[in-house]
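Hi, here's the filled form for the chain we discussed.

Project: internal
Contact: R.S.
Residues: 308
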Amino acid sequence: MPLRLSTKHGFNEFREGRWFGFADRSVGSLAHVHIAISQGLAQYLAETEGFDEEDFEIVHYGISADGERDAYAGAAPRLLCIGRLIPIKGHSSCSARSRRPARSVPDVALDVAGRGPLEPALKAYARELGVDRRRPLPRLRRRRSRRAIEDAAVVVVPSLGEGFGMVALEAMERARPVIASAVGGLPEIVASGETGLVVPLGGRRGARRGDRRARGRPSARGDAMGAAGARARSAEFTPERCVERVGGALRARARTRADVVPVAPPLHALPGRREREGGEEREEEVPRCPVREPFRRRPSRRACCRRA
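And the returned structure, exactly as it came back:
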C-alpha cells in the first residue's frame, strides 16, 4: 500500500514568503502523512504557511551513544556555543550576555565554534565587548565537535529559531547540561531544571539564571543535570525510537485511509492483456492517451525537404 510522506525539518526565512506557503501547502496536500521533527516546528508552520498543526505527526530525531563519556575536568566553567555562524543561531546575544559572568568570575570563558558568514562580525563584536582575550574563535570540523563538547562544562544554544536542536541532543549524549532558548523544538529536548535550563527568548530573568549557573566551579547539580540528559537521550531520542514512530504513523494512516491503492493495478485490469474467452484469445484494444497525443514528435524541416 503506497503512502506519500512529507517531512518538515527546520525554520527557514523562505517559508515566510507569500507564494512559498501556497506552493508548499499545494504539494503537501498530495501526501498522506505529514511529519514534523517537533511540535514547535508544527506550530511555526501553522503560523507562517497556514498548515493545520493537528495534521502533523511529531517524530523527534535520535542519535546513538558514541563511546564512553569523559567528565568535565576543568577547574573553571567553560561555556560552548557551537553551530553555523548565521543570524538565526543567536551568537551575538550569547556573546553580549557572556560579558556579565566574565566581570564577576574572571576565569569563566565562552567558546563560539563553527563556520559561517558572520565569523568576521562576531570576532569584531567580541573584541568590542572585551570577551575575546582568553581564547580565539575556533573553527571546528564536525568530527571535532564531540571533543569540543567534552571540553565544556555547559553547552549554550541561544537560537532565535530552531526546528529541533541537534546540538542540544549531542550535548545530552555527552552528559553536559544545556542552556537553551525557549523556541521551536528546544523545550521538547531540554527539560528545564532537570537536564538544563530553558531561557525565554529575550528574557532578562532567564538570562540571569543562566549566568548564575555559569559562575564558580561546576557544581554537583550541573553533573546531575548532565547525567539526567544522558538518560533522557537513551530513553527518548534514539534512532530506533525514531524509526518506530515513523513506522507507527505510516501503519496508522494506512488503516484509516480508504483511498490508498496498491502500487500497481491487478493484472486483469491492465489494458492490452490477452484473455481467453470461449477457448479463443482476445486482446483488448489499448486506447490512445489524450494527454500525450498532442506531444508526438513532429518531423524536422530538413526531413520534410528530403521527402520533397
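Let me know if anything looks off before we file it.
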